[in-house]
Design brief:
This protein is α+β, with helices and mostly antiparallel strands. The chain has seven helices and eight strands, in the order H-E-H-H-H-E-H-E-E-H-E-E-E-E-H. It has a single domain, classed as Chorismate lyase. Strands 1, 2, 3, 4, 5, 6, 7 and 8 form an eight-stranded antiparallel sheet that branches.
Length: about 180
Amino acid sequence: MPVKAALTRQNFDTRWTAFRRPYAQVAPRNLRTWLTDSGSLTQRLVNLSNGEFRVEVVSQGSALPTRSEARLLGLKPRRKALVREVHLIGCDQIWVFARTVVPFSSLRGTQRRLRLLGNRSLGSLLFSTPGMRRGPLQISRLQLADRRQVWARRSVFYLAGQPLLVSEVFLPELLQVK
C-alpha cells in the first residue's frame, strides 16, 4: 500500500513518549539508533543511499495541525499552520515519511524560506542554520491503514527562536537496506 494512502493526519494524533532508556526495550533494536540519533536524518540517508537520495513532496499547504501537534507548538485550537508532508527516498524506495508543522508566526524574516523548499530537504536547511536548537525527541508506534505497525519520532526545532515540529516515520523498507 502506498505510504501516502496509509498515513493520515489522525496517525499523528497519538500518544508520544519521551525517549528514555527503559522504553528502549520496547523499540526494536534495529530501529533504536534511528529513533535516537540527534543528527541530520537527511545526511544519514544520503550516506546510506550512496548519494542516491531525493525528497518528494506529498503535500504542502495551510492545514489544521492535530491536537497533539498544536499543543506541542503552543498553538491555539483551530489555528492553521503550514503543513508539509514528504517522502524521503533512497535507492528508489520510500524509507521515511516526514511531516512538518510550521506555525505561520514562525514564517517571518529569513524563515519565510521554509515555504519555498520544494523538493529540497528541510534537514539540510535546519542543520546548516547557525543557532538552530532541537528540543527533546519523542517516539510513538503508529498503525498504518493496512494494520502494519511503524515507529516514528518527532521533535520541535527552533530557528531564530521560532518553533517548527518535525515528525519522521521510519518505514520497513529502510530496515531492509544492507
